[in-house]
């Protein structure tokens, strides 16, 4: 009995030592009592093999840089995303960046390469649309298609911008091929769609490509899951 009481007291002491805000941040989608001193991202990722992206953490936001958004990209072509925890103030000084609130909600993926990432992160329930429904092989997504749960928005010059806008995604994952790309990316950005460019296809190594699951996880505060999934793949590789 004394041992049980000792364990209980010890557990309470540990919990008391952790700021309340930090405890809540692990489970709450939005911060309801903002504290600038609290680190709202207790789980973090870093790029070990991928060379196309990097992230810097601050207490209530993340600064994510896509260093090579397309083949042959220069430093001037890099894209920056500032991911602000819902319920906290957006930082100043990022006028040239795309500022997004996280965790993200509904997502449209313009490419099947994003499907395994969303699946392994447990985020398929956020998927609402794809560029094409014809090339899907993931059983769970095939079931969603059969149930009429996903929309098809097209890609390139055939992208249906109106369908994308009607769906109101909080995130749209896509890729580009050059700085003067005239297809999907510019039209969506101009329309005000929250577009994020993911260039995993440029990575030269298998582990570099696989590590982009951490990039996707950043938008959903799913770093812990991404680390676990990637570590298992790295070990197996």
What can you see in these coordinates?
The model is unreliable at 1-28 (pLDDT under 50). The chain has a five-stranded parallel sheet with strand order 7-6-5-8-9, sandwiched between helices. Strands 1-2-3-4 form a four-stranded mixed sheet, with helices on one face. By secondary structure, the protein is an alpha/beta fold. The termini are far apart. It is built from nine helices and nine strands. Helices cover 32% and strands 16% of the residues.
Question: Mind telling me the C-alpha Rg?
Answer: 20 Å
Order of helices and strands: HHEEEEEHEHEHEHEHHH
The major β-sheet equals: 5 strands, parallel
Measure the end-to-end span. Answer: 48 Å
What is the average of the pLDDT values?
Answer: 87
Spans of at least 5 consecutive residues with low confidence: 1-28
Estimate the global geometry from the Cα principal axes.
globular
Oligomerization status of the protein chains: single chain
Strand content: 15-25%
Considering DSSP H and I runs of 4 or more, what fraction of the residues is helical?
25-40%
Q: What is the count of helical runs?
A: 9
Which strand order spans the largest sheet, edge to edge or round the barrel? Answer: 7-6-5-8-9
Which structural class is indicated by helix and strand composition?
alpha/beta
